[in-house]
Write a structure and sequence with these properties.
Blueprint (H helix, E strand, L loop, with lengths): L1 E2 L2 E2 L5 E3 L8 H9 L5 E7 H5 L3 H4 L11 E6 L3 H13 L4 E6 L4 H4 L11 H14 L4 E6 L9 H10 L5 E4 L13 H9 L7 E4 L5 H11 L3 E4 L9 H11 L8 H18 L2 H13 L11 H9 L3 H22 L2
Parallel strand pairs: 3-10, 4-5, 5-6, 6-7, 7-8, 8-9, 9-10
Antiparallel strand pairs: 1-2
Helix pairs in contact: 4-6, 7-8, 9-10, 11-12, 11-14, 13-14
Length: about 325
């Protein structure tokens, strides 16, 4: 699959843009573990042109994580165009427009998935951003605003006519948020449309290597984007790439490897911000980390972990959990 001059190879697996998740450290880790492409956190056009530090920090790209995209969102044409030009100076490989975020503070103000209620403006923003930059421009959106307005098949053609070079479709409406099941049949309809010439990337409920292969085989999409399943579980890309290449997961990371990755995330989050806010940021990953799934009587330990406010306290708890898992593993072998 190619987006402009960016060649992602056959059946790429991509890390979806997620606010407070896909910072530069997490993107690089996912890239090292097998992600073919990564996306930044959401970048507010309004905040970017006001030079808000927390927003401009999202533009930093590590050379080793390429290819990567920076994703912007907004509800007005001029700020989106100005933000696109600022992003171009940061030299990502791709500029992505967010027409899919369903959360109230974004969609409720008319940006993100809120644009699904104002298609003319969505198309105007897309056309003007495409004209403003030399980067390949892509769009990520949803099936429609609600069950009664699933417009994605027609909308995909309209966005293509604006000049975008790939389209990612999350298989839910805005009203669904993240509930229910992603409708991959409708994503497949977009891909099967003979008038579509650009790559179609599917997103939604890709939680296992087996499901990844299934949607590629059944729906014929050009790429697949993995979102929430990667939070606290970046090694999912290792398993998925092995499944694609070999038809099975031949080598899974050990518990020791995974704990090392978790500690690295904590270290790099603290280094990027500071100890207090870095730990607050990493709690989203800790709360759903697959390493802790299934550990008996883990609730009290999880609470302590999520309340820890120093690196040393957090590492002491994680060290204790790792020892417990190692002891249980040793006992299971006797």
């Amino acid at each position: 699959m190619k987006i402009g001059n960016v060649d992602l190879g056959d059946r790429p697996v991509m890390l979806a843009p997620m606010e407070d998740v896909t910072d530069q450290s997490f993107r690089l880790i996912c890239k090292e573990l097998g992600a073919d492409m990564t996306y930044s956190e959401f970048v507010s056009a309004d905040a970017l042109i006001r030079n808000i530090a927390a927003t401009t920090r999202k533009l930093f790209i590590h050379e080793q994580e390429r290819p990567t995209a920076i994703q912007i969102y907004g509800r007005e044409v001029e700020p989106m165009v100005e933000a696109a030009r600022i992003v171009e100076e940061a030299k990502p490989d791709i500029l992505d427009i967010n027409f899919g975020c369903p959360v109230k503070k974004v969609a409720g103000k008319g940006a993100g998935a809120g644009m699904l209620r104002d298609i003319p403006k969505m198309l105007e923003i897309t056309r003007e951003v495409v004209k403003a930059v030399k980067l390949p421009v892509t769009v990520k959106t949803r099936l429609g605003w609600d069950h009664n307005s699933k417009i994605i098949v027609e909308l995909a053609e309209q966005l293509q006519d604006c000049g975008i070079q790939a389209l990612t479709v999350h298989g839910r409406t805005r009203s669904q948020m993240y509930t229910g099941e992603a409708d991959w049949d409708m994503i497949g309809q977009v891909k099967a449309n003979p008038r579509i010439r650009i790559p179609i990337i599917g997103n939604g409920d890709i939680t296992t290597p087996e499901r990844l292969v299934e949607v590629y085989d059944r729906y014929g999409v050009d790429g697949v984007m993995v979102g929430r399943a990667a939070i606290g579980n970046p090694w999912i890309f290792n398993d998925m790439k092995q499944m694609l290449l070999h038809g099975k997961v031949e080598h899974r990371l050990s518990h020791s490897d995974k704990f090392a990755i978790l500690r690295r995330q904590i270290d790099e989050s603290i280094e990027r911000i500071d100890e207090y806010r870095g730990i607050l940021h990493i709690r989203r990953h800790l709360a759903v980390c697959q390493l802790f799934k299934g550990i008996p009587n883990f609730r009290e330990t999880r609470i302590r972990m999520l309340r820890a406010d120093t690196k040393q306290e957090l590492f002491d708890i994680i060290d204790d959990v790792q020892r417990r898992l190692a002891q249980e593993s040793d006992l299971s072998l006797t």
